[in-house]
Amino acid sequence: MMDVVSTAAETKMRDQFQPGAFIGTILTTSGILDTVNVYHGVSGCHAMAQHLRGDHVPNGGYVPVVGTGFLENDAIMGGAKKLEQTLRLVAQGKLAVKAPPQCIWISMSDCPAVGGEDIEGVARGVMAETGVKIIAVENAGFKGGVARGTELALCKILDEFVEPYDGEREGVNLIAPFLMGSANWPFDIDHMVEMLTAAGVKVNLVLSRNLNLADVKRFPRAAANVLLTYEEMPDFLARSDALGVPTLSDGLVLPYGIGNSEEWLLRLAEKYGDGNKARAYLLREMDEVKKVVGRNFNFSWMASFLSDKYAAVCGYAPFATALARHLFHDLNIRVKVVGLWSETEAGVQRATEILCPLGDSLDFTVLENPTYFELGEAVKNANVDFVIGSMQDKPLFRGYGIPHLNLCGFYYFNNYNFIPWPLAGVKGSLRLFSEVCRVVDDAFYEGEAWKKLNFVPGNGRT
Amino acid sequence: MSKLKSQGYRWLPLKEAFESLPEMDTAEFNELCPGYEGVWCRYLWTTTYFQQFFRDVVVVTHGPLSCVAAVKNFKQTHYSLHSALPFAHSPCTNMDENAVIMGGTDILADTLKRVDHDYRPKLIIVTDTCASYMIHDDVDAVIAQVNPDVKAKVVYTPSPGFAGVQCGKAVEAMGPLVAALMDPPQNIDPEGVNVLGVYYDTRFTEAEGRKHGGNTEAYTHLIEGLGLKVHRIMNAGDYDYLRTTPEGSVNTIHTAMWGYPVARAMEEQFGTPWLKRQLPMGLQGTKDWVMELATFMGREEEAERFTKAEEENLLTLFEETKKLVEGKILLVECSRNSQAKYGEMLAYARLGEELGMKPYVYSLHPMEFKSQTDDLLAAEVEGMNPPVLIGPYPYHQPVNVEDVMADLGVNEDQCLYIYDDVFPYAKSGSFDPSNVPRYTTSSQMKRVKGSSFLGVGYAGTAATYRGILESVKAARRKSKPTFYGRVWSSTPFEFQVAQRKEPALT
Questions:
Q1: What is the edge-to-edge ordering of all strands in the sheet holding B192-196?
Q2: What residues pair up with B439 in beta bridges, in sequence order?
Q3: Cβ–Cβ below 8 Å for A399 and B86
Q4: Does A69 sit within 8 Å of B70, measured CB to CB?
Q5: ipTM, 2 dp
Q6: Chain A residues closer than 8 Å to B135 by CB
Q7: Are B92 and A15 an interchain contact pair (Cβ–Cβ within 8 Å)?
Q8: What is the Cα–Cα distance from A440 to B300, expressed in whole angstroms?
Q9: Which alpha helices (DSSP H) does A294-389 contain, by range?
Q10: Which of A34, A46, B66, B450 could bridge A141 with an S-S bond, Cβ 3.0-4.6 Å?
């Protein structure tokens, strides 16, 4: 049976990790490598933008986020002059880059937004003067979360750079990989492209990852978009539809774990590629996995040991949903609590629909947009062996004495994902399994007993 | 002319350097130093200051969730992960565009009631953010409205991110807010000594199971060494611990930047006297701090005995370290931690001077320098006036340490490099721990078992001496550079460096 708890529906109060709209924009634009972000606003928001922009760096590229130096006087008198000066220097290749970029994106924080700073007007002025394309996005933190900021950026990209197209359409665009909710998303999305390609699905564009600005013009050549989030993005979908590219938005489970990967790949391959190629690929991948773990005592031991254990998962809805299914289906772990975060109602609804069939064979509770307090209490009461969450909630669960594995959230900060291996796909199952084994160290090794019972030379000898 | 000079940088003694700079956030200042970025903001400082240090306090953010995320993304999580601070519950009114237009006071009222009912804290602190502050949401009125329905004390601390320069001025503004949470003293403990301005947590000690602490232990050692008692070490503990701080008989200071504003406000509100020396580091620096306290408390004899015994214990280590570094240039690189308290780097500079080194302070951004007036006051108290590199630092870019060395005309064997946070400079083949001694003074990175990670007291001093000594020894190898240095270098392998040198030899 699946219980759904949604106190969030009763109140606007929230306590969860949800960066603002400008972060979504910067995560999108930072995958377009020949461009630069200029950030106009207060330093605290700027730091978060710089930190999370770094998600694109592993096997990707570095797109600067240049602050304009917005200070208190600018909040009162307006900071347009600083914005203008910064844009000019970047456009001339004198700041952050050595040559004029293909485009400069302006993001902003709450302070200049509430103050009514005319970032569009400044952008137009410097663009006319320098000839460099400058796009201002009204994406202050109060405009919404990461998904909304992503949508705002996607809309700008379609409006500014994509022309109508009447030719043949093939394959898919993968949209917003960082919204999946995996802390390993850069390597995951790279592998998902490999999976699709092997299954005969042409990946027209990953929006965005390792692109040049000219690449985004390819957008309408895809047969469809695969949105890698369950959030609603009506403005983007409408624009994309108008360009003739429909969007799969019915909540496809993400390819984490073997069962989920099979479902994801075959569904996309049957529609946009070659089902036979997909099946052959899955078999090849499984053979590779078997080479590592088949007849391997360590694997058999741990697979047996993990079975029937109790776990909780909390994170952004798509990844948390996929993980919950993976733990139950692939590892025979009883998932007792699933915390789902989403910015839109549709986000949690789609995730809940995907999880619903598990209720026939598993008793568990789904918390929709819980506060950390609710999450902690629910997990404590469920008496689970470990939790899979994100780095930000590690101290919460460890504070309850519950072992914690950080696989969710963003790449940034203490996730130690330095080995370029996916969590996604059949291949990623090896990494997922290894990670879960590691948290089991914490959950089941008797470390406290070792300390208390440690041999002390001479102790007890008279 | 050196590269730095051609870019408009110059060395000036600390005080002169300060006076040479125009007032902050003026056209003249912005012309000199365009695009100052900073890292945090007043909201971030305020939340972290109150949120985790006092365990029965809940901070409610009246603003967008994004502001809470900016705190959790690094600062708050890092404090939990790498210090003895618990997870910080951070309920928020989740202000959206509609609330920005229509006002968010109803949501705030609902949030306060929910937090009081669910979390049951002793104290709720309401912080606002840029958006809620700019639309003039009347937080005080909301608190008055909900007060009959809530059991916790509810206090409003205005904290819009844009207010004040994010480092010095934002921290200064919190002093009176902290003191305002304290109660007038019932009984003053004549032997009770407070330590103010500890930027990191202090309550949980290594004896209680902490992996790396030592700061509380270091101050306890110094204070009890005089036969006195630690009354409070701030910020730490819970609301009751905080509110009874004025029952100590004197306030001493860990860092001026964080301690002076609270001490001033406590003096004004409760008449608590305070002493001005900060950061007891090095043999002389520690003795000066101890003697200032001893003189105030009439414990000079005990202090002489105590410091003499402690110094004798460290003398061999001191001499051994001094022998290795005397005459060297101490490259004092300020970066991110100096935004909040550059006095910490000055204290290491002072420790270096005791060892016979000559400190040069650079990458101290003029905005941060100018905004932290209390650190300048503390330097004057201590008679510190090292050379500081003043210049444009455009868009908050630091200067390159190799350019600093070229400007000073020194080579790898004539220097010791210290830095205060992430992003130390390294480039294998020219500047790496394998060929230039380096030592981290960063409160984020420095963790030594049985010592003080803030470097204070005799244990902290001993750890710093040992660290310096080991750094100098490590740099003798002149080969096998570090992974970090190789990653940043265009010549990551030693054969490349050898090839580069060969043509020069032939």
A1: B229-233, B192-196, B250-253
A2: B418
A3: yes
A4: no
A5: 0.95
A6: 114
A7: yes
A8: 57
A9: 297-306, 317-325, 345-355, 372-382
A10: B66
* Residue segments in chain A with a per-residue pLDDT below the cut of 70: none
Strand duo A334-341 + A224-227: pairing: unpaired
SS (HEC) of B231-265? EEECCCCCHHHHHCHHHCCEEEECCHHHHHHHHHH
Structure tokens at B3: 């590269």
Nearest to B41 by CA among B151, B128, B147: B128
For an interface test with B, the pick among A12, A57, A178, A380 (most B C-beta atoms closer than 10 Å) comes out as A12
How close, in Å, is residue A8 to chain B by CA atoms? Answer: 11
Q: How many CB atoms lie within 10 A of CB A310?
A: 17
- Mutate which: B31, B43, B87, vs A, most A CBs within 10 A: B87
Please give the residue that has the higher pLDDT: either A124 or B442: A124
Other Cβ atoms closer than 10 A to B186: 8
- Tokens linked to B378: 């503390």
Q: What is the 8-class DSSP label of residue A238?
A: H
| CA distances to A207, A271, B257 from B278, in Å | 52, 69, 10
Closest chain A residue to B70, measured at CA: A48
Residue whose token pair is 């796909």: A425
Tell me the pLDDT band of B504, cut-offs 50, 70 and 90. low
Question: Which tokens hold the place of A390?
Answer: 């994100």
- Contact at CB, B40 and A43, closer than 8 angstroms: yes
Residues A83 and A122: beta-carbon distance below 8 Å: yes
Dmax over Cα atoms in chain B, in whole Å? 87
Average pLDDT, chain B: 94
- Report the pLDDT averaged over residues B262-291: 98
- For the stretch B215-270, pLDDT in tens is 999 999 999 999 999 999 998 888 999 999 999 999 999 999 999 999 999 999 99
Give the gap in angstroms from C-alpha A288 to the nearest C-alpha of chain B. 32
Nearest to B454 by CA among B237, B254, B211, B311: B254
CB contact under 8 A, A391 and B77: yes
Give the count of beta carbons closer than 10 Å to the beta carbon of residue B265.
19
Q: Which two tokens stand for residue B368?
A: 């941060």
Q: Which long-range contacts link B294-302 to residues 24+ away (Cβ below 8 Å)?
A: B294/B226, B296/B250, B297/B191, B297/B193, B297/B226, B297/B228, B297/B249, B297/B250, B299/B226, B299/B227, B299/B228, B302/B225, B302/B226, B302/B227
Kindly determine whether residue A67 and residue B37, on different chains, have CB atoms separated by under 8 Å. Answer: yes
Helix count and strand count (H, E) for chain B: 25, 12
Q: CB pairs below 8 Å between A and B: how many?
A: 209
* H or E segment and range at residue B118: helix B105-118
Burial bucket for residue A39 (CB in 10 Å: 0-12, 13-18, 19+): buried
Mutate which of B39, B59, B65, B110 to test chain A, going by most A C-beta atoms within 10 A?
A: B65
Inter-chain residue contact B162 with A70, CB threshold 8 Å: yes
- What mean pLDDT comes out for the span B422-439? 95
Do B443 and B360 form a contact (C-beta atoms < 8 A)? Answer: no
Q: How far is residue B239's CA from residue B456's CA, in Å, rounded to a whole number? A: 26
Across the interface, of A15, A70, A394, the residue whose CB is closest to B81 is A394
Contact B182, B242 (CB under 8 A): yes
Residues in chain A closer than 8 A to B102 (CB atoms) = none
d(CA B287, CA B375): 20
Residue numbers in B near A12 (CB within 8 A): 93-94, 107, 110-111
Residue pLDDT, tens place only, A177-214: 999 999 999 999 999 999 999 999 999 999 999 999 99
- In Å, how far is A254's CA from the nearest CA of chain B? 25
| CA distance readout (Å), B353 to B292, B356, B357, B386 | 20, 5, 5, 10
Residues of A in contact with B70 (CB under 8 A): 19, 44-45, 47-48
